[in-house]
Design goal:
9-stranded mixed β-sheet, alpha+beta, about 400 residues
């Protein structure tokens, strides 16, 4: 290894030799960088899981354009809008279909005291709304019929087994009896454990303060060959008043993700966590490298008096920084893989490690270590050999 490093650097790998000479300090530095990597990986994993779960219900909708109230920042938090806006949209050339959707939230408590929070979607069974319901929408016309998200967390044992066996499951929700006739899959989020879909009529029975004349969303499908962005602009031009706005599904999803990550506390906390991880790594590497410079200051000063230039010493420190970055990245990424798998199994939320995250964190670690190395060489720059001897 030393021979290879000598060939690559064109000199002895002095930085590596100095790190390897004090193995205890080297191991502590590697673990410190690895811990900082782990912090960054975990915060990025949480952030990725957040943005990933935000996109799940959008992907399930059978729509090209959403019409929402102007105050809607997410799929579920907008005010109701007049149902008449669906008819206004249908009058725009290029619109193939439109369907109202009602959004609500309920807590499902079991007799054993366990509870799960469900996002509820009320749809018109006559109109396409969710891709997963195609071919089964007529079931929702039955009074109190519903489908449950198969990825819902903490569902009582036997519910999905019964549904798979073709046995409807009857439950009480907020004093109303609902019958689960089947399942679909969207996935839980940071604010809910899963989804429940029922007809708009059943939805009104569950949420008595709501009105069929005021849905939360209007799903719009474009006719074949229509550009969704241009069609959304034409719909906005045709909508009277300022009580509704049309956005393409991609634009609505991007707004939702931006809101969740920049204005919701959970997104801000995850972002701060990434910065804290980078700061911890910067401090650890700086402490290691500055201590190493201090320990070898007399040797460096001697070499400086012999005519070695500043670039030579900077190269040694940078060599140490890159070694620490590479060796620290390996345990940090391996531990992150393990914790991602554990979190996915425990929470039911996919915490994934995309290749670009691995590459980004590796490059960020190298930059962090090199910056620490540059700071650590300041003392060496100011060192005067005459004052040291």
């Amino acid at each position: 290894m030393i021979a290879l490093a000598t060939r690559l650097l064109g000199r002895l790998p002095i930085g590596w030799l100095q790190l390897a000479h004090r193995r205890g300090r080297f191991l502590a530095a590697v673990l410190g960088v690895g811990f900082a990597n782990l912090l960054v990986f975990m915060q990025l994993g949480f952030m990725g899981a957040l943005t990933g779960t935000v996109g799940l219900p959008y992907a399930a909708l059978e729509a090209d354009i959403l019409i929402q109230a102007p105050d809607a920042n997410t799929l579920t938090d907008g005010s109701p809008l007049p149902r008449q806006r669906m008819l206004d949209a249908l009058a725009v050339p290029g619109v193939a279909a439109a369907a109202p959707v009602f959004m609500g939230k309920l807590e499902w408590r079991s007799a054993d005291g366990s509870a799960r929070s469900l996002d509820v979607m009320g749809v018109d069974p006559r109109l396409p709304s969710l891709r997963a319901l195609e071919g089964r929408r007529d079931v929702l016309t039955l009074p109190g019929a519903a489908f449950i998200d198969r990825a819902t967390r903490n569902v009582p044992p036997g519910v999905f087994a019964g549904l798979d066996a073709g046995t409807p499951q009857r439950f009480e929700f907020q004093g109303r009896s609902l019958t689960l006739h089947g399942s679909f899959r969207i996935g839980g989020s940071f604010s809910g454990d899963g989804w429940l879909v029922m007809s708009d009529q059943s939805f009104m029975g569950l949420f008595r303060n709501r009105s069929l004349r005021a849905p939360n969303l209007i799903l719009v499908r474009a006719a074949p060959g229509q550009d969704a962005a241009a069609l959304a602009a034409r719909i906005n031009a045709a909508l009277p008043g300022a009580d509704a706005v049309a956005r393409t599904l991609d634009v609505a999803l991007a707004r939702d993700r931006t809101f969740q990550t920049t204005q919701r506390p959970v997104g801000i906390i995850f972002g701060m966590g990434v910065l804290m991880g980078a700061l911890v790594g910067l401090i650890i590497v700086y402490q290691v490298l500055s201590s190493d410079v201090a320990d070898h200051l007399r040797e460096y000063a001697t070499m400086k008096a012999m005519g070695y230039r500043q670039g030579f010493f900077l190269g040694i420190i940078m060599e140490q920084a890159v070694v620490l970055a590479a060796f620290g990245f390996i345990p940090g990424s391996l531990m992150a893989y393990g914790l991602y798998a554990l979190l996915t199994a425990v929470t039911g939320i996919d915490v994934l490690m995309p290749p670009e995250r691995l590459l980004g964190v590796l490059l960020g670690t190298v930059v962090m270590c090199v910056a620490s190395g540059a700071l650590a060489t300041r003392r060496l720059v100011r060192a005067d050999p005459a004052e040291l001897f």
